[in-house]
Amino acid sequence: xxxxxxxxxxxxxxxxxxxxxxxxxxxxxxxxxxxxxxxxxxxxxxxxxxxxxxxxxxxxxxxxxxxxxxxxxxxxxxxxxxxxxxxxxxxxxxxxxxxxxxxxxxxxxxxxxxxxxxxxxxxxxxxxxxxxxxxxxxxxxxxxxxxxxxxxxxxxxxxxxxxxxxxxxxxxxxxxxxxxxxxx
Length: 184
Known about the structure:
Layout: H1 2-22, H2 24-52, H3 59-78, H4 80-109, H5 115-134, H6 140-183
Helix pairs in contact: 1-2, 1-6, 2-3, 2-4, 2-6, 3-4, 4-5, 4-6
């Protein structure tokens, strides 16, 4: 049953990712809309916590943090086109920074056989970061939409592959359980 949900989610993610790649501006706007609502939700939760703990030390900082989340969320929701360039710049900087940290992690892991995967991940992150930054700001919407679409497709394919790998194992486990309960 859980495998069916994973397959359905995988198919939906691949389909949505394909739409985001075919219409990257819409993919970028959807990502900003979703991120905007997440920021608003976190801002409301932080504000609620800050109000409930207003007698505790640091209450002003909790209030300012909630204001920051609410402000960024509102900006993303009400000015999505204006927020494309700053988000793309942040994403590019994040990916390039991630590349540097993954290289350092790979060097720490070097005696182990898995270290090469960290180098591969670093190279991929670095290349994507440079791609996003090289197109900033004029290609921000297109690159952000393509990134979101590619990430959704990769996530969807991952779900489908994992579901395919788990399905035979789950069936074998169910058969073993049935066999052990019928024999007892």
